[in-house]
Specification:
By secondary structure, this protein is an alpha/beta fold.
């Protein structure tokens, strides 16, 4: 089954290049394009793709706002940020908006294709360079209104493997537990961290020092 993709970028040349690049992958199907954030939301709502490749800086609605709208309005669609901007704030805001991953436009064709497949499969796509920037940003101490509930050692193990991009099945094999048990740990972690998805869980855990640099 093909992975259905929408491209959102305000530069026609960039979109054309991505179409040509992704069309070389037999399991990819480009179903739509958008030239601004508002159009990206509308096209995604109409076509229900598996993955949206989203630029950050666009007119009408920027990539972060468009991502938040898509995540809220089109369940099951994954948004992969593809941009030239790698500042800490851009990354954090995109992740907080619900993006499934963050990729820079200097990525190789192989890296881009792998990222699209990983995002479509429900995995978190953060390159080592992006993770490093997140860690550096989140190291800065911030006052917490209340002491957060601590993760158990097993939950921490599971979340570390999530941060490495492993699927639930992969984590089960790594820790010699069932996939159902992995899902149970994830549900408990989401509740403790007060998040709704894997990417946010990794981000909040780094902020709380679960993954010390």
């Amino acid at each position: 089954m093909s992975i259905r993709i929408v491209l959102a970028d305000d530069h026609p040349v960039v979109r054309a290049g991505l179409v040509g690049l992704l069309a070389m992958e037999a399991d990819f199907e480009i179903v739509g394009e958008a030239a601004d954030g508002a159009e990206a939301v509308a096209v995604t709502a109409a076509l229900r793709p598996d993955v949206v490749l989203m630029d950050l800086r666009m007119p009408e609605l920027d990539g972060v706002a468009a991502t938040a709208r898509i995540v809220a309005e089109v369940p099951g669609c994954r948004v992969l940020i593809l941009t030239t901007y790698d500042t800490d704030q851009n990354i954090v805001h995109a992740v907080e908006a619900g993006a499934s991953g963050y990729l820079l436009k200097d990525a190789t064709p192989e890296e881009l294709a792998a990222a699209v497949r990983a995002a479509a499969g429900g995995e978190t796509v953060l390159s080592p360079a992006i993770v490093a920037k997140l860690v550096n940003h989140l190291r800065s101490p911030a006052p917490a209104p209340a002491e957060p509930e601590l993760l158990t050692p097993r939950e921490t193990q599971v979340l570390r493997l999530v941060a490495r991009g492993l699927t639930n099945a992969d984590i089960g094999r790594e820790l010699h537990i069932s996939e159902t048990t992995v899902k149970t740990h994830l549900v408990r972690m989401f509740a403790k961290l007060e998040v709704g998805d894997r990417t946010a869980a990794v981000t909040v855990a780094m902020q709380r020092g679960v993954f010390p640099g």
